[in-house]
Amino acid sequence: MHKIHIPAEILARAVRARGREQVFETIDPARTAHIVVDLQNGFMAEGAPVEVPMAREIVPAVNRISAAVRDAGGLNVFLRYTADPDEPHSWSAKYQSYLSARAAATHKATFTRGAASWQLWPTLDIRPGDLVLDKTRFSAFVPGTCALHDMLQPRGIDTVIVTGTLTNVCCESTARDAMQRNYKVVFVTDGNAALSDAEHNATLANLIVLFADLRDTEATVALIEAGRGRAAAE
Asked: What's the whole-model pTM score?
């Protein structure tokens, strides 16, 4: 797992900003969605074109959170990064400028809808009632590129828990945009995976002050179960 380190001065700034260590004292599990970002073969298989070795290690944590959310009446959403040549919104800047021609071709082939590398990782615990959605941008909240927001709103979802890969790309982008679309965001420190500890920790440092409540799996499950118990007592 990633070795977590957030500089003390950033932790202190976060506490000063909100007057307490954690952002949320409670959540309503029935209004919570666990967003599992891009745990697909193309990121997770050994030797995959965009292999993130650490992503294989977070699967037990992801499955544990999925089970807790499901049992508490919440929603699990599994996202698939998708290269769609027919999408109406061009992303030519990425494929023509940020990637070489060879890298762009490999990336598109890897995440073309239906490809083996585009499929979700086989040991993810996906059950009837969970959602599987495709997205064509790093963030799942870019209008017109993913149906996530439109699926969450009619269900009354006000909180999202983010796990997946890569921590510093799709996961961070999704978490930031979720907060700015008025969702409460919990970002799981040992449930996200990057290519290095440095990149993973940079995201945690970026998110902790203004964008997300950072918790490990144990604390996230405890938050869900506490909310479930509180709802049952009301």
From this structure: 0.96
